[in-house]
Specification:
The chain is α/β, with parallel strands linked by helices. Helices cover 24% and strands 17% of the residues. Strand 9 (371-373), helix 11 (397-412) and strand 10 form a beta-alpha-beta unit. Helix 4 (158-171) packs parallel to helix 5 and helix 5 (216-233) crosses helix 6 (272-279). It is globular. The protein starts with 41 loop residues before the first strand and ends with a strand.
Length: 565
């Protein structure tokens, strides 16, 4: 039986922005040795509440383009797109697989995002997610927010979900013309099936019988199969299709007066690596589950049934990669917090890779799924002065900027990690109570936090104390160069500058040519003295999509203090 665990959700809609639990965790970031760095990793961004109207979509996408984000993760909410979501009875004469059966207004924001992204040369990652409409949920929903909040999903009907995915896939196949009129909508070629299936608010219940029996993985298998079939049926079989989208943590606990079902119970969070093993019907020793345990978790109960498991669950073996949301709370990307081998935070990505590989081998598959870090960021203090669960406070904006660059450097160094993500452009409005998910690059009043520069021009040095004459590594990224360079990357240069002794003028001590479309560079160089180091770059004058004030503007990275002995 899979013992499981709980935390809280990262809400999607502006009215629901609240603090998600950020427990600490121990793991090993080291991934299996690979030949080269991730010079082509995707620069992803998510800020769903800024893309909820056609008007906001254009402004937000152009700002993300200015920052250099090439891929935007966009939620496609089943409950908020479908018909009569709060009704207990399914709508009559409603063909849920037909995109024209939905009100045009329900598609308007998505249509605008798709058209604008195409115009601006940006890729969209459509996460087709819950919550579920009430008419597609199971019975026995517990009292509380899950009974009325459309961001929740309780025992969602997989067949109905598949019909919705079919409608989305058909609408954005590149040839669909709404009601047969007007130009065809652009195609979407990047997908994720569901979101945070190991989190009870996204998929409940997580566990039953005092949290001794994990049931969410079986539900997720059904959702995956329905979504996978729908995407293939609508011409998206060769697209990028991600599974997982795992929340990074969880806690285990037995029944109590406060939690009659224990943890994760109905709405808690299952530790992701436990969830993955249960999803693949294996135990902690990677032996296939059998008997009553297998039966209770929807798994094959004998060897003959296990031999069919791979063909019956194609998404589990043939997906393009696995999404993970490796939030670090207040910890650095390599910090050893509370030791737990079943977490999937940034410091635990090596563990995640090994579990993914091991579950594949059980069924004779040698697939090594790429890992997409596709929801990530640091809540900062200020404005969130609350405590992180497990102790401590959230990092300052300056420390968060340092952690973000460190994390991206580590991502770059191993090609198993295929993307680097920033979650939130703008902090939600300040509220009196604690719980502000303030991971934005801008404050609620749109002032730039230090993380803004850190995202636009990442800069990192693994060694900052060294001997005079020693060459040391300087890594960085001119992120907007992804849109500004030509096919041959000519004319794109950045300067590395030093402020000797940390006072006075900065002086250019090296010029780096941008040789990859993504803007990365990784060099070794000498420093003449101690001081502050920064990266400096100037936007071209000629890009027509840059907002006012950006053409010809010079921008800077955060500072790094180096000490030359």
């Amino acid at each position: 039986m899979a013992k499981i665990s709980s935390t809280c959700r990262i809400p999607r809609l502006p009215a629901a922005i609240a603090l998600c639990l950020a427990l600490t965790g121990l793991g090993s970031l080291s991934l299996p040795a690979l030949a080269s760095a991730s010079t082509t990793q995707l620069a992803m961004f998510e800020d769903g509440h800024e893309l909820t109207s056609p008007q906001a979509a254009q402004t937000t996408l152009l700002r993300l383009r200015e920052l250099g984000a090439t891929t935007v993760r966009e939620f496609v909410s089943w409950a908020h797109t479908t018909v009569n979501p709060l009704s207990a009875k399914a709508p009559s004469n409603f063909n849920a697989a037909d995109p024209n059966a939905y009100p045009d207004a329900n598609w308007a924001a998505l249509d605008a995002v798709v058209r604008d992204a195409k115009q601006y040369g940006m890729t969209l990652d459509f996460t087709v997610a819950g919550g579920a409409p009430v008419w597609a949920e199971g019975s026995g929903i517990p009292p509380g927010p899950g009974a009325t909040d459309l961001n929740y999903a309780w025992e969602p009907n997989a067949s109905a979900y598949g019909q919705f995915v079919h409608a989305v896939g058909e609408r954005y196949d590149g040839s669909f013309r709404p009601h047969g009129t007007g130009p065809a909508l652009p195609a979407v070629r990047f997908w994720a099936i569901w979101n945070e299936a190991n989190f009870g608010e996204d998929l409940g219940p997580q566990a039953i019988d005092g949290s001794n029996v994990s049931v969410a993985p079986n539900m997720y298998r059904s959702l995956l199969n329905a979504g996978w079939s729908a995407l293939h049926a609508t011409g998206h079989g060769n697209d990028t299709i991600l599974i997982g989208e795992y929340a990074a943590r969880g806690i285990t606990g037995g029944p109590s007066g406060r939690a009659p079902q224990g943890y994760p119970g109905n709405y808690g969070q299952t530790k992701p690596l436990i969830f993955i093993r249960t999803l693949y019907c294996v135990d902690s020793f990677y032996q296939q589950l059998r008997g009553s345990i297998a039966r209770s978790e929807g798994c094959p109960t004998n060897a003959a049934a296990s031999r069919k498991f791979r063909s019956q669950n194609p998404a589990l073996f043939n997906a393009s990669g696995v999404g993970d949301h490796p939030y670090g709370g207040n910890l650095s990307p390599v910090s050893d917090g509370v030791s737990d081998p079943n977490f999937a935070a940034f410091a635990d990505l090596g563990n995640l890779a090994r579990v993914l590989d091991s579950t594949q081998k059980v069924y004779g598959s040698n697939t090594k799924f790429p890992i997409y870090s596709d929801e990530y960021g640091y809540i900062t203090n200020p404005p969130n002065g609350g405590q992180v669960a497990g102790g401590g406070h959230y990092p300052s904006p300056a420390t968060a900027a340092y952690y973000l660059n460190w994390a991206e450097y580590l991502s770059y160094k191993n090609p198993r990690i295929k993307s680097y993500m920033q979650f939130l452009l703008t902090d939600p409005p300040t509220v009196r109570h604690q719980g502000l998910f303030a991971s934005g690059l801008l404050t609620a009043s749109e002032a730039q936090k230090p993380t803004y520069s850190a995202y636009r021009l990442p800069l990192y040095m693994p060694v900052t104390l060294f001997k005079r004459g020693q060459k040391v590594e300087v890594w960085g990224d001119v992120r907007p160069a992804a849109f500004m360079t030509s096919d041959t990357h000519t004319g794109q240069q950045a300067q590395i500058q030093l402020q000797p002794g940390s006072r006075g003028a900065f002086k250019t001590i090296n010029t780096v040519r941008i040789s990859s479309r993504e803007g990365y560079f990784d060099i070794h160089m000498k420093f003449p003295s101690s001081g502050n180091v920064r990266l400096i770059w100037t936007y071209p004058q000629t890009d027509p999509l840059l907002p006012a004030g950006a053409p010809g503007a010079t921008v800077y990275s955060r500072h790094i203090v180096v000490n030359v002995r």
